[in-house]
């Protein structure tokens, strides 16, 4: 594609690891409060920016 598009890189591996960790903790203690987890995406600037 011309120009190359600026995109956002999502940390998929880290997201998967955190999801499993949260799931395991929720299964161990179903009454615990819901927790908010936020990952920081990376802006990949290319030619369209």
Automatic annotation (TrEMBL):
SUPFAM superfamilies per UniProt: Periplasmic binding protein-like I
Keyword set includes Transcription regulation: yes
The protein's name in its UniProt record: Transcriptional repressor RbsR
Transcriptional regulator LacI/GalR-like sensor domain span: 2-48
GO MF term list: DNA binding
Species whose genome carries this gene: Klebsiella michiganensis
Domain of life: Bacteria
Protein keywords: DNA-binding, Transcription, Transcription regulation
